[in-house]
Amino acid sequence: MREPTAPSGGAPRRARGFTLVEVLVALAIVAVTLAAGVKASGALVLNSKRQQQLSAAQWCADNHLTELKLTRAFPGTGQGEFTCEQLGVLYRGHTRTQNTPNPNFRRVDVQIFNEDGYGLLTVSTVLSRF
């Protein structure tokens, strides 16, 4: 079998291909790109879980404050505890009721904690006597 020759008819032409160094550099670039993609997708998953927790905590706080409004009873000052289950997760709530400069209003702060005791959210409102 004959060796392929150069177009000029001179010395034989060598088969062309990638060198080992070129292949290793390409693999390193692909590895770094994939690692960055995995890290970014992991961050998206964590942000999604955090958003889910905050939404559920907001629902718990809103439900508790709505319950206080619907009782139409002027709340006394002090602190209280409650629990709330949203999306299959049990959240703890802490209520703090304070006087305001106007005696016909009370400030109510509701804090929501996850099952680990980490504070997720604080919601405040003002309830009236009438």
Summarize the structure.
39% of the residues lie in helices and 30% in strands.
Description:
The protein is α+β, with helices and mostly antiparallel strands and 130 residues long. The chain has one domain: 2-Layer Sandwich (Pantoate--beta-alanine Ligase, Chain: A,domain 2), CATH 3.30.1300.30. The chain is 39% helix and 30% strand. It has one helix and four strands, in the order αββββ. The protein has one helix spanning 20-70, and strands at residues 78-86, 89-99, 105-113, 119-128. It has a four-stranded antiparallel beta sheet, with helices on one face. A hairpin with a 2-residue loop joins strand 1 and strand 2 (89-99). The longest helix is centred in the middle third of the chain and has 51 residues, at 20-70. The termini are far apart.
